[in-house]
Fold:
Amino acid sequence: MKELTITGRNSGSKLLIGETLQNLKNYLPPDRVIVIADSRVDQLYRQHYNRYQVILAGEGEGIKNLTTVERIYGEMLDLEVDRSWFVVGIGGGVACDLAGYVASTFMRGLRFGFVSTSLLSQVDASLGGKNGVNFRGYKNHIGTFNQPEFVICDAAMLSTLPLKEVLSGFGEIVKHALIADETMFRFLEEHHREAVGLHHGVVEYLVYTSAVIKSGVVNRDETEKGERRVLNFGHTLAHAIEKCSSQYTHGEAVSIGMAAASIVSLQQGRISEETVERILKLLKNLGLPLKTGIDKTLLIDAMRHDKKRDDDGIDLVLLDGIGKCVIVRSPLASTADLANAIDLIDDDGHLINLTAL
Ligand SMILES: NC(=O)c1ccc[n+]([C@@H]2O[C@H](COP(=O)([O-])OP(=O)(O)OC[C@H]3O[C@@H](n4cnc5c(N)ncnc54)[C@H](O)[C@@H]3O)[C@@H](O)[C@H]2O)c1
Ligand SMILES: [Zn+2]
Structure:
């Protein structure tokens, strides 16, 4: 097992990579523990934590709202949970975001930890102390910054994850390689088959390296005033795609967003065509999409209403090389460049040769 620490402003968080669900009890008080679990995960794994009281969160992005929060508060009241209790969120990003928010707000805050069960949450969602729920169509609009005491990342639990969800996690893994680690990118190029096949050592290396990158960024900028924004690479277009269509998982939308942001980086003379081709090839080899047929005017409109933009413009995260990113203050009009970049990729996943047209 490998351990990493995130130092939040209120408290620290231990990331336990390669730890198992079976050892959960070693990190918990002997009693007064309440589990908030994803319902699908609970069906598969309840036998490993049935000594504790369990509240089912439900399953899927649609439950991540204040109605579910209120129901869970009610169940906690009925169980006479008070501030001396410990909350454990068990599930992917949805259950962990919900459980972290409930734990941070019920009676002004209870101690809490996570068992992170999806690839996306192991490499991203459950790390960094952002907890929250969606509100009136705005993603993660209500929430807190508060670190879980521990995050258990059990690679064995990924074996029951649907393939589409596995691929979603790879979207964020490639993002970490592109913004911060060329060696990791090369490793992915060489081991993409084993990666998608969830070979144990390969996945453990990728989860660990992702966690090192994300925790490093979060340790330097917990509340996203500066550097943490690099984690939004590929996300401006991805959020617009997710707003316009429910066809894509988050990681798939990020894949399309990263392909477009790489092309805009090429257009600004920051990276070469060969570099863009390498990026497109890796995403394709991992089974991730590079383009979408969604109407571009809808995408541009959604980007212009992105909550991360302000009246003067938008911060675009672009690449200066593989493993090297830069935040570029850009006019709002540059959102059109991102949407138009989709058309510069052909159906085989290569850059269209503009000079030959
Ligand atoms: N807090 C943050 O910093 C942060 C960062 C990125 C994403 N997020 C949030 O994370 C959420 C997405 O997370 P996600 O992709 O894990 O979604 P998710 O929690 O909905 O999990 C995806 C699906 O996989 C199932 N599942 C999870 N683990 C499983 C397992 N081991 N075996 C079988 N099925 C399993 C779930 O039931 C669900 O159907 C979004 O709500 C997003 O906003 C938060
Ligand atoms: Zn993301």
Observations:
- The mean pLDDT is 94.
- The chain has twelve helices and eleven strands.
